[in-house]
From TrEMBL:
This is Transmembrane protein. The chain crosses the membrane at residues 33-57, 63-95. Keywords: Membrane, Transmembrane, Transmembrane helix. It comes from the Eukaryota.
Length: 126
């Protein structure tokens, strides 16, 4: 069981850290630094999550930050300025030591409807 937990953390790190940072289209030095900061923020968040202390879920979960970054990438058409600002906000939210309402608010249907409506509006404009 402990090996499975470590593999799950590694899978989360590669999926929600490394793979999501590739959305930032590393072209220049500043973009590479931003990608590195995003990956390190995911790493820090996962360290807090897997510390073994019950209810030590501080910072925005990396799953949600990756979902937000991916949605912004799709809805903005890959606008790099919007992606950079969103990535900076997600980095700050992930390393923030405040508590977030994980399950009740973030898994509700309300925000999913907002994202769906934004996607429909974006699709209508194309």
């Amino acid at each position: 069981m402990p090996k499975g937990a470590k593999l799950d953390d590694f899978a989360d790190f590669t999926t929600f850290g490394i793979a999501t940072s590739l959305l930032l289209k590393t072209r220049g030095l500043m973009d590479n630094i931003l990608c590195l900061c995003y990956v390190m923020a995911v790493f820090t968040r996962l360290c807090f999550f897997s510390s073994g202390i019950p209810f030590m879920y501080r910072g925005l979960p990396c799953i949600y930050s990756s979902a937000i970054l991916a949605c912004v990438s799709l809805l903005s058409g890959g606008n790099m300025l919007v992606l950079r600002v969103t990535a900076l906000a997600m980095i700050l939210f992930m390393v923030n030591q405040g508590f977030y309402p994980h399950d009740r608010v973030l898994e509700s249907q309300a925000w999913k409807k907002v994202v769906y409506a934004g996607g429909r509006k974006r699709g209508a404009l194309i």
